[in-house]
Structure formats: structure tokens, C-alpha cells
Specification:
The chain is of the alpha+beta class. Helices cover 34% and strands 14% of the residues. Helix 14 packs across helix 17 and helix 17 packs antiparallel against helix 18.
Length: 576
């Protein structure tokens, strides 16, 4: 790790010297700290090496800034000759010179605009005219304190560092040499149709295997670790798909790009916060950046980068893509052809057997509604079709200003489910990308596992077999054996063949409790089984993953009839 630091500094310094004759004053402190001994006679640690290690421990163990300051003062007191900074603030300034810092960009209190670029010196929001600074009793405080601060971590310096050592520089070429030779096997995105389509449309970008392919992920979290406090902060993370599949999702190769402040979710104003990242991505696509390649005799090449897609859960996808995930046309794939209907209390989506092969046995199965399914899969919408739809979307004012906050704009019929044109279309190549937004499988798998287990075990809080669902069947005139009926003064609910009996529910719980896994494979699932073996609660995402792919296909075979168990097994196999 510490050998890399020296290479980073020398690499950037050499590139700068080639670009201009000015001296690299910004690196003087780094060279001094890197070459100086931590303590007279100690050559195993330089001052910079030791400081970086301390900062790493601070982050990993969640030390406060105050505790870090006190530690530095104690070290200085105990070892007076130690060459070490005395404050966390000084350590941060040194790290910033290595490109490990971030830019603080002030944000309007109503999320209308950033005080950035042409608005960087403005005192009021250009959209809603609110003050940039916090006010007390109608007056500005003594010190200028912004309402919100967006943290932006520049992307280009971190991409350059992937080429500063020969090891990572070679790994950045893996996608070219490691692609699958079997057209029916996909082990990396390079084997997918979207990647190949992008290469075909942009051959000048694909010619240099060192050009970087990126994916973007964003979701909300509560930084206070206290669910009683309502606060939504959004990190935006980038991953590099040039790397092999066993590395591209490792934490050390994930790059935090933006930290969007709360307390509210950005929602429809996501475009406002993504501007700095989009501007840098445009620059990296159009002009690139000079980068020294340690894997090719340290020669300088013009590195370019492209964002291939986003990966999110369904609500976050709506914020990023601009297509609303609610209503009668919620499906972004079916688009305006989404088959939906209104049932009791919600909108239901049907006709999913249209996605099955035309010869699949379920297409001719009459058990559900007595009809065969001949409908073809939904049509594919080209980039031209999507751009034509976006041209019909009206431009709205960003932000959550009280003057127009909460006013629900009624979309015209020709706007479909589009709420906005997302900012990714500012990228020159985005409109032509075949697969723009991906859904996170782990979120989907957990939701399906919770619903499936809840229905099988008759959990009233998780089951989809509710009284309203039975009334919907009655209103549709199908599955008469499941209709509610009256017995005297009571409303009776017939037992369904897809739910466990009390005895079978206890058998399944005992089965889950008894399973033993190798160390590190799964959590102790016996802790999630209730003491009376009546239900399974508190499952995390990986727990659901293990149950869907390992336990449920085996555990349900003897507890429900063959038709139900084979369907469950096929569903679980789909996620495998």
C-alpha cells in the first residue's frame, strides 16, 4: 500500500511537468513527509506512511476528530522528536494534496440549485431567491453557515491511480482478455449484449481497452444509526467494470462520487445534485485526461471514460431515470403497454405469462382464469421512441420551495409516466445505450422471499393471501374455490393449497433451525425461527438469498403438492 503512495506522487508530478514548466509546489510537503523518517533512526516508517496508517485506523474504527487530535497530541508529548502533524485538520490538508479530499458545494435549502460554477459567488438561490446562508430570527448569523453542503469527490484523479502500478494497470485490461468464449455463458458485463452494442456504436472508444467503463449506484441511508430520526442521505457510488468480476465489486475498488445531504430524499430534484459528476463525465468522454500507464513502460495515453448504466432498487430507479414507478404504467420495460388494473386498495399488474416461451406449459394452463395465454412479449422501445416521448415531457421548476411544494402536477396523457428528462441525457452517448438502468437483484430477491415465506406460512403481516385478495378473485370471477363465504355471522376464508398447515409450518421451521452451514456461508438462521416454531422473522438480504437458493426448494417439496412445489423450485432457480 505504502509503495503505491510514492508511485502516485511521482506519477502525477511527472505528468504535470510534461504539461507545463511550473514547479510542483503542491507536492513539496508530500515529498518531504514521504522521505523523512518518522523518528530519528526509524527507517521502517516515513512520516507520511505513519500518518496514512493512522487516518486509516481512524476511519475503520470510527474515531471522532477530537479523539484523533488528542491521540496526535499524546504521541507528540511522548515522542517529542517524532515528525508528525499535531491536528486532524493538518492531516486532512495533507491527504487532500494526494487527491483524497473532496469539494464542498453549497446547495439551496429547497434543493433548487447548486452554488457552483456561474452561481458560486451568489448569495441567493437563482430559482427561489432564498438566502444561501442559515438565518436566526430573520438575521444572518455571525459566521456564514450554508443550509446544505454537497460533497463531491473528483473522479479523474482516482481513475488515474488505477494505472500507477503495473498490477492494477494490467487488471484494467482484463475485460478484453477475460471475456467468455462461449456465447451462452455470461460471467462479466463484457459478455452481455449491452456492452457489445456500445462497442459497436463507439468503435473509437472500444479500440483502446484501457478506456474505463463505469456503473453508478445510489440509494438512501440514515447516517445516525437511529431509525427514530427521519433523515435520508444519498451516497452515489461508481464501480469500474474493466476489472475482473471478483474485484469490481470489492470495497477497495468502489469510488464514492457524491454525498447528497438530507434530511429529505432528493426525489425529482436528483438532477440538481448530479451536475458536477455529469460535467466531469462529459469531459472524460470528449477530451479524456493524460494518464501514465505503468503496465506499458509508463507511457502516457489519453484515458477516456463512459458511464454504461445505473444499478438501483426500484424506488431509486424512479428518481434517477425520471420514469415514475407508480400508477397504471409503472413498468419501465412495458412502458405505455403496461397491463394493469385497479383492484381493492391498489393497482395490480397482470399478464406476466406473456414473457414465457410460446411453447411453455403454463401458457396453456387453465387453472388461474380458465384461459390460455397467447399474448406476445411487449414490444421493445428504441432510443428514437424514448427520445420522442421525452420531447413531450414538460419542463418543471426544480426544488421544494413552499410556494409550489406539494402541488401535484397532473401529467398529460402523452407524457405517459415520465416525470422529467433525467440528467444522464446530457452525456453524448446516453440516448443510444441499450440498457440504461438495472435493478438490484438482492433487493428484489429479499422482497420476493418475504412475500413467498409470508404467504406459505400464513403470516398476516407478510402474506399476499389477504381478505382483499380473495375479494379481488371474486370480483374477477375466477378461482371460485378460494372465495370468501359466510358461515352464520362469520366470514370464512377457505384454506389454500399453497399455504402450510399448522403441522407443516412447524416442520419447516424445525428444518430451518436444524440446518448447519460452513463458516462464513450464512448467518445462524436458527435465531430467526420463533421459539414456538410458528414463524421466521428478522431476515436480512443475505438470509433471504440463502433461503431462496438453498433451503426453500428442498424444504417445501414434502409440505405442499407437486404442482406448487415445482413452481416454487422454478422461481428459486431463476435467482440462482
Amino acid at each position: 500500500m505504502f509503495e503505491v503512495l510514492e508511485d502516485i506522487i511521482s506519477n502525477d508530478a511527472e505528468v504535470d511537468q510534461l504539461g507545463s514548466q511550473s514547479s510542483n509546489v503542491q507536492y513539496d510537503d508530500l515529498f518531504t513527509a514521504l522521505n523523512s523518517e518518522l523518528y530519528p533512526g526509524v527507517s521502517s516508517f516515513s512520516s507520511l506512511n505513519f500518518l496514512v496508517k493512522l487516518m486509516h485506523l481512524k476511519v475503520m474504527n470510527k474515531w471522532t476528530n477530537k479523539s484523533f487530535d488528542e491521540l496526535l497530541k499524546l504521541l507528540k508529548l511522548a515522542f517529542p522528536k517524532m515528525d508528525l502533524v499535531e491536528l486532524h485538520y493538518e492531516a486532512k490538508k495533507l491527504m487532500t494534496k494526494m487527491g483524497l479530499g473532496y469539494q464542498s458545494i453549497h446547495v439551496c435549502k429547497n434543493d433548487c440549485a447548486l452554488f457552483w460554477n456561474e452561481n458560486s459567488m451568489s448569495e441567493t438561490c437563482p430559482v427561489c431567491s432564498e438566502s444561501r446562508w442559515k438565518m436566526q430570527a430573520g438575521r444572518q448569523t455571525g459566521k456564514n453557515v450554508p443550509h446544505k453542503v454537497l460533497r463531491y469527490f473528483p473522479l479523474a484523479p482516482r481513475l488515474k491511480r488505477l494505472f500507477v502500478t503495473s498490477k492494477t494497470a494490467k487488471l484494467m485490461r482484463w475485460h478484453q482478455a477475460g471475456k467468455s468464449t462461449d456465447d451462452n455463458v455470461m460471467r462479466h458485463p463484457v459478455d452481455g449484449r449491452a456492452w457489445k452494442d456500445f462497442d459497436r456504436k463507439h468503435p473509437e472508444f472500444a479500440d483502446d481497452v484501457r478506456n474505463v467503463r463505469l456503473g453508478l449506484a445510489a440509494d438512501s441511508f440514515n447516517p445516525f444509526n437511529n431509525m427514530s430520526i427521519s433523515y435520508s442521505m444519498w451516497p452515489v457510488v461508481l464501480t469500474t467494470y474493466n476489472l475482473p468480476p471478483w474485484l469490481c465489486m470489492k470495497p477497495e475498488y468502489l469510488m464514492l462520487s457524491l454525498l447528497i445531504p438530507g434530511p429529505q430524499s432528493p426525489g425529482k430534484d436528483m438532477n440538481v445534485f448530479l451536475w458536477p459528476l455529469i460535467e466531469e463525465l462529459k469531459e472524460l468522454w470528449e477530451n479524456g485526461i493524460d494518464t501514465r500507464d505503468a503496465g506499458n513502460d509508463r507511457k502516457i495515453f489519453k484515458m477516456r471514460a463512459a458511464l454504461l448504466w445505473t444499478v438501483n432498487d426500484f424506488p431509486a430507479r424512479s428518481s434517477l431515470s425520471g420514469w415514475s414507478g407508480q400508477g397504471y404504467k409503472a413498468c419501465p420495460t412495458c412502458n405505455e403497454d403496461t397491463p394493469s388494473m385497479r383492484v381493492i386498495g391498489k393497482t395490480a399488474y397482470f399478464g406476466h405469462r406473456r414473457f414465457l416461451p410460446s411453447t411453455h406449459r403454463w401458457r396453456s394452463n387453465l387453472d388461474f382464469d380458465g384461459r390460455t395465454k397467447r399474448k406476445r412479449p411487449p414490444r421493445r422501445f428504441s432510443s428514437v421512441d424514448i427520445m420522442d416521448q421525452l420531447r413531450r415531457v414538460k419542463t418543471t421548476i426544480p426544488g421544494k420551495h413552499p410556494n409550489y411544494r406539494g402541488v401535484k402536477r397532473k401529467r398529460d396523457d402523452d407524457e405517459l409516466n415520465w416525470r422529467k428528462k433525467n440528467i444522464f441525457y446530457e452525456l453524448p452517448y446516453w440516448a443510444e445505450i441499450e440498457l440504461k438502468h438495472n435493478l438490484d437483484v438482492m433487493h428484489i430477491e429479499k422482497n420476493i422471499c418475504d412475500s413467498l415465506l409470508g404467504t406459505l406460512m400464513g403470516n398476516p403481516h407478510k402474506s399476499k393471501d389477504t381478505d382483499n385478495a380473495r375479494r379481488d378473485l371474486q370480483n374477477l370471477g375466477i378461482r371460485s374455490e378460494l372465495h370468501l363465504y359466510e358461515d352464520g355471522n362469520k366470514l370464512m376464508k377457505p384454506a389454500a393449497e399453497y399455504t402450510f398447515s399448522d403441522a407443516n409450518r412447524r416442520k419447516f421451521c424445525r428444518f430451518v433451525r436444524s440446518v448447519k452451514f460452513p463458516d462464513g456461508f450464512a448467518a445462524n438462521l436458527s435465531k430467526n425461527v420463533a421459539q414456538n416454531d410458528s414463524r421466521i422473522v428478522g431476515l436480512k438480504s443475505h438470509d433471504c438469498h440463502v433461503i431462496m437458493q438453498r433451503l426453500l426448494p428442498v424444504g417445501c417439496r414434502s409440505l405442499v403438492n407437486k404442482t406448487i412445489s415445482s413452481t416454487i423450485i422454478e422461481l428459486c432457480t431463476f435467482f440462482n
